[in-house]
Design brief:
The complex is a heterodimer of chains A (275) and B (422). Chain A is mainly α. Chain A has helices spanning 19-24, 26-40, 50-69, 80-107, 109-114, 121-125, 128-148, 159-183, 187-200, 216-219, 223-235, 245-268, 271-274; one strand at 5-9. Chain B has two domains: 2-244, Rossmann fold (3-Layer(aba) Sandwich); 257-396, Distorted Sandwich (Coagulation Factor XIII, Chain A, domain 1), CATH 2.70.50.60. Helices cover 24% and strands 32% of the residues of chain B. The radius of gyration of chain B is 25 Å and the shape is globular. The chains are: A mainly alpha (275), B alpha+beta (422). Chains A and B meet through strand 1, helix 2, helix 5 and helix 13 of A and helix 4, strand 5 and helix 5 of B.
Chain lengths: 275, 422
């Protein structure tokens, strides 16, 4: 093994992303995710079933409020419960991951003050536990498509890409918020609020086709709009194709992600001092 | 494995100023945010504090360096810089080889996880790869002597058990440069000794160790080179014994009396505050030079501001080279249960018998704590004194740390007429 030479000095100017080092610490990322998963349902009665219970209960409520009371129009041929559940599964992944990533630094503040490792590991690995929940909820979604007999189209091959889009969006926003959270604890109050706001501008209650044509491009500035519509399309044969606006969602996500990485790295210099 | 021949540290400074990064941002937003209190204490320049200032030194491969200094001298800051937890504001350091740092035992332990799981987690946090931990797992468990409790969640461990497990993991790190903060002060004595032995063997294997401790005896035993930091600057750097000697002499300033002048600066917590420490001779007079034949009295005066339980005072007696001669506590021998003390001012007085100490300079480190709960104050070399050896001349040159006058009896075992029988 060659002895490595490390230089310690004040960094100036644009931060380096240091992704190579993040890769070297991948075992640590694995263990952080593993810890979160192990701990997540310790001392709970229902354990992993919570991953299904939450979206399922919301599905029932949505179906009743929007489907029955408000009679929101959903695409023809798509059963209402399935329509809502298929949107809620990626949404839950996004919301859990965003919360976990934003809290990741302050939740591990004692580590940040005592141990060196690339700080990016924390928000990146924090999405692991939510991902497991997602897999559980998703497998139930497949069961539901069989129950309703809607059949799965070939579009399902896009599912991993859409999941990645949701995850990366959560990480991108999480990078900004976690770095801000280390310094300003206000972020803690912003996160639930932000998630509620996004909930209403994401096509969870109504399909985006209900949104006036003129506003629709703006609507898809929210990357989760593309993800949610995409999920329905990938899993339910009768659901409409989301169209090229999803690319806009992806582009916005990339912008947020790259900006988030740089902001995080530049804020990282003072994490241990201010957290 | 193979390293260069030397390590050069050219360290500048570390500023612990809040809001340095985003002064402009904080000014713009300060009103609606909660941290307004913090940033409005003073202007950024006025509150900036150099925790370390122009610290430069070289450490060669295989050296063990002990870093000493008062609280707030910058020791921990230096370790944090070297282990890359914070960035220096100015200057730079070059490290050749993998760095393992241990600033706290058990960082990252998760209470809900079992001992086994925590070994893996903690190992990864300290920088071991999954394969390394797997390979050394049995060794770690054996060292910790915690094999029976491996499947128990750590939250059910006593604090001593947690320390054992955590140190066992840390002791099996194999970096080329090991940075250790005051972490050995925890755990029971037997295990402490075992941990120190492990540290010593790390050093003897030719790896470089940087070590911070308040325990002069430990540090003097482990380290051949010493560095004394004072107010963020290097005050002395060289052979350990010399550095410790200078440090103790300077911090005690040869005074037999330690008096807290400003009560707000008094060592202690909200409940107990130290007022003064004095060395007195048999006549009750404060004195710096004492006769070795007569008892020496160490008096510690402290205020109890709130009714308190389980308070214990004590001190360590150190020789001029930093060796701890002994440690004594006010409940020694009595094994008192947690005694309640009402508010008021108290004096703890200890008698060191005559004909015990050899001639030379001694330092007294005073300590008050709640055993196993917290240290209330710990004042390194609060007072110091000289003992003038007045014993007979041939006794003065005896080998040994102390020269006690002990009781001897000589008895003849066999009776004269018992000879030759059977």
């Amino acid at each position: 093994m060659r002895a490595s030479l490390v230089q310690i000095r004040a960094s100036r100017g644009w931060p380096k992303l240091g992704l190579r080092e993040v890769w070297r610490f991948r075992d640590l990322a694995y263990f952080f995710a593993w810890r979160d998963i192990k701990v997540r349902y310790k001392q709970t009665l229902f354990g992993g079933a919570w991953a299904i219970i939450q979206p399922l209960v919301l599905m029932v409520v949505f179906t009743f409020v929007f489907g029955t009371v408000l009679s929101v129009e959903t695409p023809p041929g798509v059963p209402k419960p399935l329509f809502y559940y298929a949107g809620l599964v990626p949404w839950t992944l996004f919301a859990t991951s965003l919360t976990a990533a934003s809290d990741s630094l302050s939740a591990n503040s004692s580590l940040v003050q005592k141990i060196y490792f690339p700080r990016l590991i924390l928000p990146l690995s924090s999405v692991g536990a939510g991902l497991l929940d997602f897999v559980i909820a998703l497998s139930f979604l497949f069961v539901m498509t069989f129950i309703y007999g809607t059949g799965i189209s070939l579009n399902v091959v896009w599912l991993p890409l859409l999941t990645l889009l949701a995850l990366l969006t959560a990480i991108a926003v999480g990078l900004w918020l976690s770095a801000l959270n280390a310094r300003y604890r206000d972020v803690r109050y912003v996160i639930p609020f932000l998630i509620t706001v996004l909930l209403f501008v994401t096509p969870l209650f109504t399909p985006s086709s209900q949104v006036p044509e003129s506003i629709r491009p703006f609507y898809f500035l929210n990357p989760m709009a593309g993800v949610v519509e995409g999920f329905r399309w990938a899993l339910i044969d009768a659901a409409p194709r989301p169209g090229p606006v999803t690319l806009l969602s992806a582009a916005i996500m990339l912008l947020l992600l790259i900006g988030g990485l740089f902001y995080f790295r530049s804020a990282e210099r003072s994490f241990a001092d201010v957290i | 494995m193979s390293e260069g021949l030397s390590k050069r540290y050219r360290l500048g400074t570390a500023a612990h100023t809040y809001g340095r990064l985003s002064e402009s941002l904080s000014n713009a937003f300060s009103a609606p945010f909660r941290w307004v209190r913090r940033s409005s204490i003073a202007s950024p320049n006025a509150e900036s504090l150099w925790a370390l200032k122009d610290v430069s030194f070289d450490v060669n491969v295989g050296q063990t360096v002990g870093i000493i200094g008062r609280n707030g001298a910058g020791k921990t800051t230096l370790l944090k810089l070297l282990s890359r937890i914070t960035e220096p504001t100015e200057g730079r350091a070059l490290l050749r080889g993998r760095v393992g740092s241990l600033l706290e035992v058990g960082t990252g332990f998760h209470p809900e996880l079992t001992g086994r799981e925590n070994v893996y987690l903690n190992g990864a946090i300290l920088g071991m790869s999954r394969a390394t931990i797997k390979k050394r797992f049995d060794e770690i468990v054996e060292f910790s002597e915690m094999g029976r409790f491996l499947e128990t969640p750590v939250k059910r461990y006593s604090s001593g058990m947690q320390v054992r497990l955590a140190f066992a993991v840390a002791a099996h790190l194999e970096p080329e440069i090991l940075i250790v903060d005051e972490v050995l002060a925890v755990g029971d004595v037997a295990f402490q000794r075992k941990s120190l032995g492990k540290m010593g063997s790390v050093a003897s294997e030719g790896r470089t160790v940087l070590f911070v401790s308040h325990n002069m005896g430990t540090i003097a035993r482990l380290c051949e080179t010493g560095m004394w930091l004072d107010e963020g600057r290097v005050k002395a750097h060289g052979p350990m014994d010399e550095v410790v000697g200078k440090y103790l002499a300077a911090s005690a300033q040869g005074t037999s009396h330690f008096l807290v002048e400003d009560p707000t600066q008094a060592p202690g917590d909200d409940d107990v505050k130290l007022r003064s420490v004095a060395i007195k001779n048999g006549q009750g007079n404060a004195s710096t030079y004492l006769d070795s034949r007569f008892p020496i009295y160490i008096e510690m005066e402290y205020s109890v501001l709130r009714r308190t339980v389980g308070l214990r005072t004590g001190f360590r007696l150190l020789s001029s080279d930093g060796t701890v001669i002994f440690t004594t506590r006010d409940n020694d021998g009595a094994d008192l249960p947690a005694v309640e003390q009402d508010r008021g001012t108290f004096t703890s007085r200890c008698e060191i018998p005559g004909n015990l100490l050899k001639g030379g300079q001694y330092h007294v480190t005073v300590i008050a704590d709640r055993p196993y709960v917290k240290v209330i104050f710990h004042v390194e070399s609060a007072v110091s004194f000289w003992v003038e050896s007045t014993q007979r001349i041939y006794e003065q040159n005896r080998v040994g740390v102390i020269a006690p006058e002990l009781k001897w009896t000589i008895q003849r075992k066999d009776l004269p007429d018992a000879h030759g029988k059977s």
